[in-house]
Amino acid sequence: MSWGTELWDQFENLEKHTQWGIDFLEKYIKFVKERTEIEINYAKQLRNLSKKYQPKKNSKEEEEYKYTSCKAFQTTLTEMTDYAGQHEVISENMTLQITAELTRFVQEMKQEKKSHFHDGRKAQQHIETCWKHLEASKRRFERDCKEADRAQQYFEKMDADINVTKADVEKARQQAQARNQMADDSKSDYSSTLQKFNVEQHEHYYTHIPHIFQKLQEMEEKRIVRLCESLKIYAEVDRQVVPIIGKCLDGITKAAESIDQTHDSQLVIDAFKSGFEPPGDVEFEDFSQPMKRTISESSLSNSRSDGKPEVKFGSKSKGKLWPFIKKNKLSLKLGAGPEDFSNLPPEQRRKKLQQKVDDLNKDIQKEIDQRDALTKMKDVYIKNPQMGDPASVDQKLAELGHNIEKLQQEVQKFQGWLAEVEGRLPARNEALRRQSGAYESQNTSAVSNCAQDRESSPDGSYTEEQSQENEVKVMTTDFDDEFDDEEPLPSIGTCKALYSFEGHNEGTISVTEGEVFHVIEEDKGDGWTRVRRNEDEEGYVPTSYVEVYLDRNAKGAMTYI
């Protein structure tokens, strides 16, 4: 099977077919290019998607990723980034192994095709020239034969005419002989030209054209083989990344299997557990008999009663439900809480303090490592003065020593607070209470004449114990805890500052020891009392800093100290 023998007369059709083959190959190249662009765009979109849902550093969202479900999702995002990388590999390999190679091959095919068809046209022109020469020789032979025949007839006519002179007859005879000779020469030339043309034609159709068409056939078959190889490479490029993509998917599956709902539930408990016990039963208050009522210790403080005077059973108690009541806006306006986290519930406070101690210990260890390294460097300088001046590191060593001492003091301070929370310390000293913003009053109030022990709960609330003889009956009143009241709140009593307080945070007010204020909102369990100095200046002060006298229409007064 050969194009040269089977398609010897299909020169134009072969030219069209080979051009179609090149166009088809270019079409395939365009297809692969568009596929690589899709892979690149897909990988880019996957990376952007994964980046979009990654938790932002130092944000609340990052804290959420302690849960196993969130960790699994983060692993999925990481695996999707690797997954996107494999699509980039597909694009790169297809570009290098298919697009670039086929583009170069197409250029070579175009040059080869051009050369072959140039040779074919040249052969066609040569055979056409030979054919034209043969036709010319044939026409000349035909013309000479006709003229010789006419000359012979004219001679015979002249020879038969008795009236014609002998000279005219001889002339006609000579002309006939000349024409016949010319006819014989034309015949010989025609025969020679015909033989030569037949040889050229045979070589054209059996040698030159088959050779050229065979080259074209080889070129076309090479194009087909190259396309076949490219299709295999196309599939192999995808197949090469399948194992890695499978690992990415296996990683996602493994991350999903690592989700532990029980562990996540325990993390929720660890994150929000307050450490308080639920409130006890609310006792019945009998208003039919004259008696004094007081706000007694809530069962919320029972867990903190170790080492404290026991609540006297003769006093009537009213359970505080403030952990479940709407918090006022003070927590939003005050910004950062106290240094000892006393505004937090016990369990959360313990975790924060422990975390702070661990962070400080890490900082101390870093400083110690730096100090040890500088000490070794100084020893080297002492032994080898040419390497450096030992005195050059003294200042840095002094700074590190100062930093370590300062950090150790911080650790001791936070360990003290931590020990108190965990019940290892009986009580705070006065300085510690002042620094954390909560105090235990050791003196007896001269106004109320009732001995009270104050205890700071870690979330800023306070409990009180009063003697049975000095119980004070008080009516509970609900006040609006919003800041944006249109009308100023009425005064519900007065208070006297026991200590000075610098109100740096928004919503607080500065007070000096001994200063008297109007109370416009009593403590709702968060450890803050709202007071007014004049008609325009009001704010919150720690309840433990003031002594409060509530006006209850001569029914008694409640004192906070």
Automatic annotation (TrEMBL):
It is found in: Cell membrane; Cytoplasm, Cell cortex; Cytoplasm, Cytoskeleton. Pfam families: FCH, HR1_TOCA, SH3_1. Signal peptide: none annotated. Residues 490-551 form the SH3 domain. PROSITE patterns: F_BAR, REM_1, SH3. One of its GO terms (biological process) is endocytosis. Residues 1-264 form the F-BAR domain. Residues 295-314, 434-470 are annotated as: Disordered. The keyword Cell cycle does not apply. It comes from the Eukaryota. Keywords: Cell membrane, Coiled coil, Cytoplasm, Cytoskeleton, Endocytosis, Lipid-binding, Membrane, SH3 domain. InterPro entries: AH/BAR_dom_sf (IPR027267), F_BAR_dom (IPR031160), FCH_dom (IPR001060), FNBP1_F-BAR (IPR037449), HR1_rho-bd (IPR011072), HR1_TOCA (IPR057870), SH3-like_dom_sf (IPR036028), SH3_domain (IPR001452). GO terms for cellular component: cell cortex; cytoskeleton; plasma membrane. One of its GO terms (molecular function) is lipid binding. Residues 438-451 have a biased composition (Polar residues). Residues 343-420 form the REM-1 domain. Residues 350-377 form a coiled coil. Belongs to the FNBP1 family. PANTHER family: FCH AND DOUBLE SH3 DOMAINS PROTEIN, FORMIN-BINDING PROTEIN 1. This is Formin-binding protein 1 isoform X6. The gene is FNBP1.
